[in-house]
Amino acid sequence: MLVQFSVKNFRSFKEEATLSMVAASIKENEAQENLFKVTDKLSLLKSAVIYGANASGKSNLFYAMQFMSRFILHSAERLSKDIPMSRFKLSSETEFIPASFEIIFIYEGIQYRYGFAVDEERVHAEWLFYVPKKQEVKVFTRTEQRFDLTRHFKGQGDLVKGERVRPNALLLSVSAQFNGKMANKIVEWFSSFNCISGLERYEYPKHIPDLMKDEKGKNAIVKFLRDADMGIKDLGMDSNPPSAADVIYRDDSKDLWVSDSRTKEKLLIKFKTYHQKYNNKGEVTEDVSFYMNDDESEGTQKFFNLSVAFIDTLENGKVLIIDELAARLHPRLVKAICELFNSREKNPRNAQLIFASHNTNILRKDIFRRDQIWFVEKDRFGASELYSLVEYKQKGGKKVRNDASYEKDYLLGRYGGVPCVRDFEAPYGE
């Protein structure tokens, strides 16, 4: 469960920005389906949507979460000296200050707070705290290559004494590589913290062949496509891929290839859809097969790929972050996805969905609470600011009422996060 994420001095975020999934004390969503109780004092939101103008920084928030996750999972094994990140470049104040990332999450009933500060060359700081009972306790802190490990980080002292932690690697990642108990738990949680793009090819298709070989998994995808009114009766694959242990990768095309780890043989996987063919009496005569990536629409392809992400996230109570979820998808379909995650019945494991969008049709109080709606806006110095509708103050210091017309007021610019569009001139005017 994600509690909150913070980033500072990364891409367009100069000052610290925090996305919180903690439910505010507001009287909305009377059925309380959009949130779930963790303790008597803490309730978390099941979803959040982020709005903002083009180039406002929405994608940079997504990149920040993606970078943190990937750096934790892979920094110990990286051979390159460079750390693949970019700090805020439009201020002389930030030139010599590292970027910082911090996340608070709950895993197996325990709350953790972990963060680090890095530049493009090394880790400047790293810290880990957790709440074993009621009070937060320090596990370790790091300043450059000086480490302060407490008894809660058992058996990990040899890592720092033996200089196994490189200046450009995280202690947490190295500890997990050497089977550190707490580090393994945190890395395990981050493996279920999934950031994917809604505009590019997706990470999840590589898992589809394994899911399709399982009848239950295939039926789940087919049901998603049917419920979305895609006109698809069934799914299939053109070749039978090897076992799940084998490497699956993509080339530059839309197609999937698998490499058999035993024979090194490369197999092309082509997904097929089946549609019903009718005669002039409206009777079904046969099933006709299409190739997903050749014959289906871009929207169908995207929803097919994302369906695996939705199934995996809901089934296992994970966290899913999608940049531009609504691109190529109908507004009613996006609304249904939001309602799916907000539902107590359909999301019993309290999976969380966070996504950026330009689709204002879902900017409604019957879908989202004010604390689920977020905006990103750039100031005149090119720095992004992140804020929620529940904390936004209008002129005169008044907060937004829960009976306001969110979509209309947002498009009128009353909440910020919209472009200041001037009249376009003719490209080749006189």
C-alpha termini separation: 58 Å
Radius of gyration based on Cα positions: 24 Å
Number of domains: 2
Major sheet summary line: 7 strands, antiparallel
Give the DSSP E fraction (strand runs of 2 or more residues): 25-35%
The number of E-state strands comes to 21
Unreliably modeled segments: none
What class do helices, strands and sheet pairing give?
Answer: alpha+beta
| C-alpha geometry | globular
Report the CATH topology name of the largest domain: Rossmann fold
Helix amount:
10-25%
CATH class of the largest domain: Alpha Beta
Short account of what is shown:
With 430 residues, the chain is an alpha+beta fold.
Task: Walk me through what this model shows.
Helices cover 23% and strands 28% of the residues. It is of the alpha+beta class and 430 residues long. The protein folds into two domains: 253 residues, Rossmann fold (3-Layer(aba) Sandwich), CATH 3.40.50; 117 residues, no CATH class. Helix 3 packs across helix 4. The protein is globular.
